Amino acid sequence: MAPSRDLDVIVLGASGVTGKQAVPYLRGRAADLGFRWGIAGRNRDRLEALLDGWPEDERPEVFVVDTERRESVDAAVARARAIVNFAGPFARMAPPVIESCVEAGIGYVDVTGEIDFAARIVERFHGPAERSGARIVQVCGFEALPFDLPAALAMERLESAHGDPPAEVDAIFAGTPPPGRPYASDLVSNGTFESLREAMEGDGASLLGDPAALIGDLADPKRIRTACPIRSRPRWKEGVGPLAPMIPSPVINPPVIQRTLALTGRPPLLYREAVAAESMVPTRPLQAVLAGSVSALNGGLTLLTRAPAGVRRAGTSAMKALAPSGGPREDRLEGWHWSVETTARGASGAEALARVVGEGHPGYLATSRMTAEAGLILADADKPDRAGVLTPASALGTAELDRFEAAGVRFS
Predict the structure, then answer these.
(1) Taking a C-beta distance cutoff of 8 angstroms, is the pair 127, 218 a contact?
(2) Beta-strand pair 351-359/388-390
(3) In this structure, is residue 192 part of a structural domain?
(4) Which of 21, 76, 115, 342 has a CB 3.0–4.6 Å from the CB of 63, allowing a cystine?
(5) Same structural domain for residues 256 and 387?
(6) Are residues 127 and 151 in the same domain?
């Protein structure tokens, strides 16, 4: 008997640092839209604690899911139209969930930034997911949804307004933290730091910094590497000032953008991104220091990825001293204002601009909400135009960007 799929989304890892931020968001969306949903994790008591005091008619269904027990994964997947996965570390915990979603032919989103792991998922599951109708969307949090979708939107506008195919895309992130004492975990959490360290120690370290890491057999990787080298040098933009390499890493979004291009039938192009230092610190000297420091750190990490395994292990062990103690503080999640301004340029010099503006900590509060909304969009589509291991832009498209306004993320 075919499963009923009576739940639109199930949030896996709902009691974790990011997942628990998605729970009240989906509560509000369920009240507005009237869908049914569930939450899942390994510990029922922690899940039930999230729902303490909720009226019975507002409570999501609770699933105990242990990714080491495949039957518990399959039981949740059998009920859902889409799984929203916040349960990391993803390289260890996500494969059974993804495999179950592929076999069931349903939607799946997660927020991994582990490009080497995402590359293995492309290789293993793209073909089977195409055949089953599943849409597997990784790197769908702050990396890379608010970069991938504006890039697609700007390219579409360039083509429709000017008839000019895109030759270059340039994205600039600006983020203003809440007032008060800043913390290292505002920018990079312990979990993100540990994921990066594990990736650098693993066999896939050479994929970090490769813009063709996720291309699979869709396009010529050499052509992509020539068109879009990932650089970690600081830059200067007139009217903006010093530009730092992307934080927490400049190697995550470019492979996603290049996969989107290939999936949507466009050739490789130069994609650049940066952080406007003036949005983070107040004076030009401090902005220059920030841009230079981030550039030097990323340059050192790039060299480390190319070193022998023993050297990489020694280097990443030394990195532990720099790691923040945990995730962002609860009192530092609200009060953030951020934007990504993306310009697509054609060969003729014509330009089109897309902008996304967000509220809340980009990597945690905003990520939890916009990733949950992405899961709802996947759950809504009965007959998707495209299946496989996809990207945010190739899976979600640009027709429903106004839905993200509920998540505090506005495209224009």
Answers:
(1) no
(2) unpaired
(3) yes
(4) 76
(5) no
(6) no
Nearest to 216 by CA among 262, 149, 251, 264: 262
Nearest to 110 by CA among 67, 51, 155, 170: 67
Query: Of 360, 375, 395, which one is at a domain's C-terminal end?
Result: 360
pTM: 0.92
Structure tokens belonging to residue 331? 């009192």
Q: List the helix and strand counts (H, then E) for the chain.
A: 14, 14
27 & 169 share domain: no
For the beta carbon of residue 6, count every other beta carbon within 10 angstroms: 12
Angstrom distances, CA of residue 13 to CA of 46, 67, 146, 392: 11, 11, 22, 20
* Residue 114 sits in the same domain as residue 150: no
CA 70 – CA 74 distance, rounded (Å): 6
pLDDT per position as a tens digit, 168-218? 999 999 998 888 877 666 666 666 666 666 666 666 667 788 999 999 999
Q: Which regions in the chain score pLDDT beneath 70?
A: 1-3, 183-205, 300-307, 312, 315-316, 318-327, 382-383
136 and 209 fall within a common domain: no
Based on the fold, state whether residues 118 and 150 are members of the same structural domain.
no
CATH number for the domain spanning 396: value is 3.40.50.720
Q: Which two tokens stand for residue 79?
A: 């009920």
SS3 369: helix
Give me the count of residues in the chain: 412
Same domain for 55 and 199 = no
For the record, the structure tokens of 321 come out as 């001293």
Please check whether residue 1 lies inside any domain of the structure: no
Query: Residue 153: CB partners within 8 Å, gap ≥ 6?
Result: 342, 354, 398, 401, 411
Q: What is the CATH number of the domain that holds 280?
A: 3.30.360
Q: Does 180 lie in the same domain as 289?
A: yes
Task: Tell me how far apart the alpha carbons of residues 83 and 205 are, in angstroms, rounded to a whole number.
Answer: 28
Burial of 154 (0-12, 13-18, 19+ CB in 10 A): buried
> What are the DSSP calls for 267-324, one per residue?
---EEEEEEEGGGTSSSHHHHHHHHHHHHHHHHHHHHHHTS-HHHHHHHHHHHGGG--
Residue span of the structural domain in which 42 resides: 7-142+364-411
Write the pLDDT tens digit of every residue in 365-378: 999 999 999 999 99
Kindly state whether residue 2 falls inside one of the protein's structural domains: no
Count the domains in the chain. Answer: 2
